[in-house]
Amino acid sequence: MATSPLAPFRNRLIFAACWLLWIAVQYKSLLEFQIDPAIALTDASLSNTLLAVMLALMIYILGLYRPQKRKYLFLLVWCLALSGLWAVMTRISLAGLFAHHPDYLLFLRKSMPLRFDITLLVTGCAAITSMLWHSQEEQKQQESRKRHAEKMARDAELYKLRQQLQPHFLFNSLNSISALTVSQPEQARKMIQRLSDFLRGVLKKEYQQWVTLADELQHLQLYLEMEQMRFGRRLSTEIIHDEESPAFLIPPLLLQPVVENAIKFGLYDTTAPALIRIKASVDRDLLTISVQNPFDPETASPRPGAGFGLSSVQRRLYLLFARNDLLSASAEDHHFVTMLKIPRHDQSHPDR
After folding, report:
1. What is the 8-class DSSP label of residue 244?
2. Which residue from 5, 175, 221, 272 puts its CA 20 to 30 A from 43's CA?
3. Domain 184-343 bears CATH identifier 3.30.565.10
4. Contact 116, 87 (CB under 8 A)
5. Per-domain residue ranges for the chain?
């Protein structure tokens, strides 16, 4: 339920200030009609106190129930009823207090229609203001709930993508270990150790939203060592970065699918040696990472499922930054280049 317009302390001060100002205006107006100052002060104070109570009651009720669209006639009837109740209570109270002042009683009787009209106008303005307030509060709450739901859905999808990555890579590694078991058992043993270290790092990163590029590259090195055991001298890697890049925060486990994709297209369809080059640089608040691999356009062909790596990275970047322009791929001069752009993470907004 939306909060009351009178809940904030500032609004209560404004309400009290308007009440005092209206008393002062009515008191001065009554003096213009030659009403005794004491009677005028009592009249202004009592009638406006009753009005303030009526307005507070109306605001409270509107917080509990508000008429829906096309039912504003009910709100008008409500304002008429409250204004009529105020008029009756005011006239009875003032007439009882000043029963021995016939001139004032005559003035009171003749002024009641005007007082009623003014009260109806004030009550209507207060009702409209209260309705607008509650509508805005409900809209804010709905937007907050929507953002929270979207964040939960985004986090769930990010977690799903990361969970998909692990078996995807694990199956490939186990196939490689199986192939090495007979021909190179010692290499298979080393690869199992590297795989154990790699998966231990994956489990550690499950609870991290952001890691430094230096940490990500260190973890990536375990993966590259396993791949080098598979391909031997055919695979070589080169990692280049500027001074600012290592401390830049990036989503964890982001580079491994891109490098895996580069190795697939650089080595699977050819027997020639391949150099996988990884470059990282920071320009203002943007980290740019390029992963380059050679390919033979005559023999290279996408394998079934090979698109999972880049598509998962593309989806993760969109979920984190709401941008579709952070990953691009291009082919030129027998080289395939995948480009990642990662905006600087604002730690003051942890929900990003």
Report:
1. S
2. 5
3. yes
4. yes
5. 9-145, 184-343
